[in-house]
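User: Here's a structure from my thesis project, written as structure tokens. My advisor, Dr. K., wants to see whether a designed sequence matches the one we expressed. Can you design one independently, without my sequence as a hint?
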């Protein structure tokens, strides 16, 4: 009887030891780029079976969840990480590492369509926001990680404006339509399906300047529904970040996941149904220290 009971305990202990470790991953909207790319990696890497997706409002919430130990991995914009380090001087961010460097996310800046009027002499005048510099003294609605981008761009380009923090995209455009905001700033990888469905708004240019070097890079937006040609803008690189875990089980899991993704880049770029943003991923440029 004692031997049987001892065997039972040993079996129970072995079963517990064999239980897999599950890690939570903060992505974003279920229809967003982060969520899609996480699911894409899951199709080519069996290691992702032990990763659970957690939907969020985006980069800002993601980094807070990662820093507060609510998730083990998070998709974030690199400018949000740098703002935490350089502006907030949060010491916890030094423990954050990049598991995978990903795509560039373009800054989308929207305003209402400009109003063109003619005076009695036939001279035309245009009112409204038509450029980034026109935002001086205006109100810009943003949410999630875009709040940080709006703050950094304002400071770097010396264009002071009031940032209106909103819950989500719908609230941002509601504020624009109600006259509570003069523009909407959103950081999202193009082509964004929701941008492709927009009408009645102006897509504003953001010209790259040397002041943005090291954080942002020049880019172009292509949305035939909003502009006949390309619109200049800037982009920030995103990363899949994690904490600098030292425990053997987590470290092995994360490094195996990293190794698989790095080795499957061609599949991620060429297999049908994968997000088009994989086309610009190289896994060569690390905007943040690498997890090793």
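Assistant: Designed independently from the structure alone:
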């Amino acid at each position: 009887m004692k031997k049987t009971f001892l065997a039972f305990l040993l079996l129970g202990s072995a079963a517990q030891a064999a239980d897999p470790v599950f890690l939570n991953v903060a992505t974003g909207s279920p229809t967003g780029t982060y969520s899609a790319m996480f699911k894409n990696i899951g199709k080519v890497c069996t290691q992702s079976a032990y990763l659970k997706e957690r939907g969020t409002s985006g980069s800002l919430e993601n980094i807070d969840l990662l820093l507060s130990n609510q998730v083990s991995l998070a998709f974030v914009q690199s400018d949000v990480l740098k703002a935490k380090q350089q502006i907030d001087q949060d010491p916890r961010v030094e423990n954050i590492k990049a598991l995978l460097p990903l795509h560039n996310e373009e800054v989308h800046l929207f305003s209402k369509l400009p109003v063109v009027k003619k005076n009695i002499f036939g001279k035309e005048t245009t009112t409204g926001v038509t450029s980034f510099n026109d935002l001086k003294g205006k109100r810009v609605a943003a949410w999630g990680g875009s709040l940080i981008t709006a703050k950094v761009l304002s400071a770097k380009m010396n264009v002071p404006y009031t940032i209106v923090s909103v819950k989500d995209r719908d609230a941002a455009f509601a504020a624009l339509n109600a006259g509570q905001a003069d523009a909407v700033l959103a950081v999202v990888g193009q082509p964004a399906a929701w941008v492709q469905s927009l009408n009645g708004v102006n897509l504003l240019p953001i010209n790259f300047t040397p002041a943005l070097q090291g954080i942002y890079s020049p880019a172009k937006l292509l949305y035939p529904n909003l502009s006949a040609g390309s619109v200049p803008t800037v982009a920030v690189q995103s990363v899949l970040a994690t904490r600098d875990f030292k425990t053997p089980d987590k470290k092995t899991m994360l490094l195996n996941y990293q190794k698989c993704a790095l080795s499957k880049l061609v599949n991620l770029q060429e297999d049908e149904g994968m997000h088009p943003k994989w086309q610009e991923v190289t896994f060569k440029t690390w905007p943040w220290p690498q997890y090793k």
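When you compare it with your expressed construct, this may help: The radius of gyration is 23 Å.
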